[in-house]
Amino acid sequence: xxxxxxxxxxxxxxxxxxxxxxxxxxxxxxxxxxxxxxxxxxxxxxxxxxxxxxxxxxxxxxxxxxxxxxxxxxxxxxxxxxxxxxxxxxxxxxxxxxxxxxxxxxxxxxxxxxxxxxxxxxxxxxxxxxxxxxxxxxxxxxxxxxxxxxxxxxxxxxxxxxxxxxxxxxxxxxxxxxxxxxxxxxxxxxxxxxxxxxxxxxxxxxxxxxxxxxxxxxxxxxxxxxxxxxxxxxxxxxxxxxxxxxxxxxxxxxxxxxxxxxxxxxxxxxxxxxxxxxxxxxxxxxxxxxxxxxxxxxxxxxxxxxxxxxxxxxxxxxxxxxxxxxxxxxxxxxxxxxxxxxxxxxxxxxxxxxxxxxxxxxxxxxxxxxxxxxxxxxxxxxxxxxxxxxxxxxxxxxxxxxxxxxxxxxxxxxxxxxxxxxxxxxxxxx
Length: 430
Ligand code: UD1
What we know:
This protein is α/β, with parallel strands linked by helices. It has helices spanning 22-31, 48-60, 95-98, 108-115, 134-142, 175-186, 201-212, 244-257, 272-280, 319-326, 346-351, 382-394, 405-410, 414-419; strands spanning 3-7, 12-17, 39-44, 63-66, 79-84, 92-93, 117-121, 146-150, 153-157, 167-169, 191-195, 216-218, 224-228, 236-239, 259-264, 284-288, 291-296, 306-307, 332-336, 356-360, 363-367, 376-378, 398-402, 424-428. It has two domains: 3-18 and 242-428, Alpha-beta prism (UDP-n-acetylglucosamine1-carboxyvinyl-transferase, Chain); 22-239, Enolpyruvate transferase domain (UDP-n-acetylglucosamine1-carboxyvinyl-transferase, Chain). It binds uridine-diphosphate-N-acetylglucosamine.
């Protein structure tokens, strides 16, 4: 299993290109199941999760073509990929393919909407809480689907072969349930209103793509989406938006090490709450043509209290990275996780660097220390893994991060991007 070895202490200086967002690319790829015409996606990141979803889509009969030359190692540009689901050959998403990635469960929406039936294994994914699928299933039931659980599979059927529009109100904001019900509603008979919809930029990115495919959706970017079902969707060309979590992660890495980094292609409007927090923590952040610049020269890291929230609040996917930063602040900060009930697995690993963190229920109290020391640590989930890299960048001596397959799921060429800015970091194969 690959590992990452790094030696901390260097400032980050230079440019980091921000890739297309994983959390937008995945639902966009799944939307290709809604039409028999080609869907061309631009700026698709090169990630293990994208590859895995390609396998799942191919199993349903989607033809996938990556355009142009396969780019070499030095090219950071995103991929342009055409997905054509002329015929859905199989409406089952099997356990072997679905169990490693929760988002693959989302195929249930388009399969049910287009084919009138779907059989999808209950999902796996990061171990950051129980992550049930009750909102998805209740939402689809509202759209008239009949649903059974059989042998670990969700078996869903639309009576008469077509879903019916309905009013759906989610009890809590859910990104995935919003994606699924919105996709399903595009081909349903009649109008669907989704209330308490997720407003995450990735939801809007998917909604805009669906509109380009002929869907009738209003209220995009608000908590009330109105979807008027149509008989058929067409192909489209659509661009994956830049990854706000990758942006925030590198911004926190630069805030941690000090230096001056331009995050190329980053869009500040996608993560304003996190940028505000970083400014309060002592970094200087400016928008400029081509991206976002972050600097921290000389001044220390200030403690800031943070609570995760659905968009536009502080994202849960940046909580671990921010905690890593706070381990070096010159005071005490409280970090409250409100989205997932078990998202503090990185605390024990950060402690291996000498961090002082005390967890009390959903809140972690972090007392900054003057120095972290390099350590052997273990990646536990996607975002937690990268928090260990951030800690390692500032720690004295050598750090080895084990089990980095989690990192490869969501961060494109992390070690390349960081080493180009002066970090001493390498991947050790095997
Ligand atoms: C997505 C993101 C993930 C991010 C999360 C929250 C992708 C691929 N993943 O995950 O990176 O951390 O949003 O921003 O985009 N819930 C239920 N029942 C349900 C569905 C959700 O109780 O049926 C709960 C979850 O347990 C959690 C909360 O709702 O407590 C929010 O989860 P949700 O927004 O659905 O997360 P995902 O879509 O899985």
